[in-house]
Write a structure and sequence with these properties.
By secondary structure, the chain is mostly helical. It has 17 helices and two strands.
Length: about 350
């Protein structure tokens, strides 16, 4: 009897580590991912130049936006050309509350995402019944309308003059802002990984690959597409709040289409459908294009060239290249396994 009890008790000891490992994997927290996030958290401590630290903060902000953007374009195959407008909506919602009502900027992290999420839901309900380019164009029109309102409502937003918003922190140093943004970006990564690795994520992928086949399998296209779009817009609004109280001034240009194109290019260069690809690309692309800032609008032509070259030669983006290199290294390191598999 004792032997039976012992034999049944032994397997249960290993269940907790297995479950924990499963949860960490679902959240995208593999050993490699944890190491990369740890490096990102520690590296700025050794950088004393404020200009370089600002580049890191901006890169992290664009990387987080690219991750949120990728949820829609990478999974349900809908390009949200109004993405920057939802970032701007979150920014203006928080900024106006702080300026007009004197509320703390930190409360904006509640109001901004709610405002962007509600508009994202309404936009999704109205547009995601459409297919192909129509949904993208409708989202673009919503973005243009928001930018137009921010421009003409001068008494409220001050239009092109700019709305001066209070900063999140009293310190002028960049490092404190980095450590405010880092947990936000990390939280967005974990949320997106948990969603995309769940049954909901499987529904997203099915809709992105073949909408008719997914519908035939019992998946409600409108319901899941609207859910996807709303979550992406909510996260965009959250990042908009940080932008508003990090930069300290808001103009309608924050909602411009070119801002969406910039995020789109970063996402595609990083690797569409991988979530973390946009974050990787941001830390490579943003510093380069900051160096090219004197070229003004010509920078966006270069963005376009980068994007076209990526889509033609490396459709999987940087993530695809890294995975390809990893497979080749694994193949070289284990020639015996591949021979055995071929013989079998």
């Amino acid at each position: 009897m004792e032997q039976t009890q012992r034999s049944t008790a032994i397997p249960t000891k290993g269940l907790l580590p297995d479950r924990l490992r499963s949860v960490l994997k679902s959240a995208g927290l593999t050993p490699a991912a944890l190491i990369l996030w740890a490096i990102l958290a520690i590296a700025p401590l050794f950088i004393k130049n404020e200009y370089f630290l600002r580049l890191i903060v901006v890169s992290l902000l664009f990387g987080a936006q690219a991750m949120a953007f990728d949820l829609t374009v990478g999974y349900i195959n809908v390009v949200n050309f109004g993405f920057a407008a939802f970032v701007g909506l979150g920014a203006y919602a928080s900024g106006l509350l702080a300026v007009k009502l004197g509320l703390s900027p930190w409360l904006g992290f509640i109001v901004g995402p709610i405002a962007a999420g509600i508009l994202g839901f309404v936009t999704g309900v109205l547009t995601l019944r459409l297919r192909g380019i129509y949904a993208a164009v409708m989202a673009w029109f919503v973005g243009l309308a928001l930018m137009g309102l921010a421009t003409v409502l001068v008494d409220l937003t001050r239009g092109q003059l700019g709305l001066v918003t209070p900063l999140l922190l009293k310190a002028n140093a960049q490092l404190p802002y980095f450590y405010v943004l880092l947990p936000i970006a990390f939280g967005i990564y974990v949320i997106l990984k948990l969603v995309t690795n769940s049954n909901i994520g499987l529904a997203f992928k099915a809709l992105g690959q073949n909408l008719d086949a997914a519908r035939a399998s019992g998946i409600d296209p409108v319901r899941y597409r609207v859910l996807n779009f709303t979550l992406s817009c909510t996260l965009a609004g959250f990042l908009g709040v940080f932008y508003a109280h990090y930069v300290g001034i808001l103009t309608p240009s924050v909602m411009a289409t070119k801002a969406t194109v910039e995020v789109l290019a970063i996402d595609y260069i990083g690797g569409r459908g991988f979530i973390w690809g946009g974050m990787l690309a941001a830390f490579l692309v943003i510093p380069v294009f900051e160096y090219l800032r004197p070229l003004m609008e010509l920078r966006y032509v270069i963005y376009g060239v980068f994007l076209i070259l990526t889509m033609i030669f490396y459709p999987g983006g940087l993530v695809g290249v890294i995975q390809g290199v990893g497979r080749r290294i694994a193949k070289v390191l284990s020639p015996g396994d591949s021979k055995g598999a071929g013989a079998g």
